[in-house]
Design goal:
The chain has 298 residues and is α/β, with parallel strands linked by helices. It is 33% helix and 16% strand. The protein has ten helices and eleven strands.
């Protein structure tokens, strides 16, 4: 449904596909996030999605205040299907949001102060390309004693608990959401960023956005927290692989027994190279004063 309360609200988009058990836990945490009732949530079930996605949305949607389910039009290019869903959602959200667009994928678990942290850091750093509330998986960053401290960096974009100010999507990302990209993402990225440091095979929506930020450099950095406000719970490797069978209630229990346990997360993945990116973090709210930048990484 489309809620008339969507007017004058910031928008949070949730792309989802075939893992309703992860979406259940995602929403169970999101509904507890401070300020979520002030947002409009846009669910984007991609083409071919598990119909049980809608059962989960029906269960949690009324707890989110304002929400809608927006199934994207069919993408004729198989290679760009997932990217078309996410990028199309960004463009639609940017056209309707009050100011900010958040994105939480179905296997990302957010902390209670997830939204509060984003709003604070965006206010403190108005020239950001984006803020990302998860752990920076691109580099080792020293811990800080102050849980409110954050840092800014370049070339470290990842699609995990993101917030964009609307103008970044409209001016920087939207010009590249075009047929030529979806038709052949690799060729498009090579043509437009032939000197990029981003790997040639990294061309889906997150690789595209990473190249766009790389082009902006220090003028439009990314903000990360020293204390993550979200974590990636995709414990079975590639996000689109479905490996848990059985009734949805069983799948929800199976996932819940693993994703909040550090040891279980390290031993469960069938592709261990992903386990380092899937470390649970505290989802409770620490004592707050203000967030502040204590370091800059180039």
């Amino acid at each position: 449904m489309t809620d008339t309360l969507a007017q004058n609200r910031d928008v949070l988009i949730i792309p989802c596909w075939r893992r309703p058990e992860f979406l259940w836990h995602c929403l169970d945490n999101l509904r507890r996030a401070e300020g979520v009732g002030e947002l409009h949530v846009m669910f984007r079930p991609d083409r071919g999605h598990d119909p049980r996605i809608h059962e989960v949305i029906d269960e949690f949607g009324p707890q989110l205040g304002s929400y809608e389910v927006d199934v994207p039009p069919r993408c004729p290019y198989r290679r760009g299907k997932q990217s078309a869903n996410v990028l199309g959602a960004y463009l639609r959200a940017a056209a309707t949001t009050r100011r900010y667009v958040f994105m939480v994928e179905e296997d990302v678990m957010v902390a209670r102060d997830f939204l509060r942290w984003h709003y604070a850091v965006q206010a403190a750093q108005p020239q950001l390309f984006c803020s990302i509330a998860a752990r920076n998986t691109n580099r080792a960053v020293p811990e800080a004693a102050d849980p409110e401290a954050y840092y800014v960096t370049n070339l470290d974009y990842c699609s995990l608990g993101v917030c964009f100010e609307r103008s970044v999507i409209v001016r920087r990302i939207a010009p590249h959401v075009r047929r030529e990209y979806f038709e052949n993402p690799g060729a498009y990225c090579q043509q437009h960023w032939n000197r990029s440091q981003v790997g040639a095979g990294y061309v889906e929506h997150d690789g595209l956005i990473r190249r766009i930020q790389e082009e902006q450099g220090a003028r439009r950095p990314i903000a990360y927290p020293y204390r993550p406000r979200a974590f990636h719970a995709g414990l079975f490797g590639y996000p689109r692989r479905a490996v848990i069978n059985g009734a949805l209630s069983h799948r929800i229990r199976e996932v819940g027994a693993i994703i909040y346990d550090v040891e279980a997360m390290h031993t469960a993945p069938d592709r261990p190279e992903f386990s380092a990116d899937s470390v649970p973090v505290s989802l409770e709210t620490p004592p707050w004063r203000q967030v502040r930048c204590t370091a800059r990484w180039e």
